[in-house]
Amino acid sequence: MKTIGVLTSGGDAPGMNAAIRAVVRTGCENGLRVLGIRRGYSGLIGGDMFEMNLRSVSDIIHRGGTMLYTARCPEFKTQEGINKAVDVCKEVGLDGIVVVGGDGSFRGARDLSLAGIPCVALPGTIDNDIACTDYTIGYDTAMNTIVDMVDRIRDTTESHDRCSVVEVMGHTAGYLALNAGIAVGATSILVPEVPYDFEKDVVGRMRRTQKTGKKHFIIIVAEGIGGTMEMAETIERETGVESRTTVLGHVQRGGSPTVRDRVLASEMGHYAVKLLMQDIGNRVVAYKKDSIVDYDIYEALNMKKSFDMEIYKLAHEISI
To answer: pTM here?
Structure first.
């Protein structure tokens, strides 16, 4: 293997730049030519790439987002799109690719590997919803951003004896909501994985804590639940507590990555290049039980991630 590429795909996540940096520097230090592919699979199909060197990735480890940009690419989901990408790889002499992204990006890496272009995928998503890894690049930063934002919201919530219903990211995964909810002492945490009774699990808990003297409340809701405006209206009507809704939105994706995300991304990027140097593709790099490991992409995509109900129960026992 003489030339490798690196691309970021899907939603951006803090730490992607640290992964890019590790890939480029590991590759250069081992005599490989490294190409940066702009805007994910779309850029690969279009041949939008440039040669990178040690200095290309200076001063990016602390930056959020991705210097290579990212985009979704419906064309790559077709056989014609895959064939175009393979043709470009052969034209520029691309022997292997490191792909940073989520499940959709993994499927693209699998398709390219099957077509003869070895790919190694790194889990980069703030949702932490990839089953084969305990942590994904960007997850720790997103949790810390949520905690920082909610701590600020709490100042006003407490000053006015209010209830703040805070919506955090997570369409189908409640990991951000659960862990951030524990960290901010939320009275209730609503996640897609666990059915809930609004009267019992939110209003009822608030009434119970009101009897103990509590006057302000934080409710954390994963975006996959929806209806946060209606929730705030119901809470105010049922409890008499003035309620407001805050949707944190894309602020959760941005910002300087934490130490954990910088180190994790660097370890994963380095590991991925070492796999490609052995002509090993169709792999996903993961963080499992405090170690960096790798799985076949098929195996990784077929894994199921279980929601930790013990932590969920703990969260509600200690926040009443």
So the answer is: 0.95
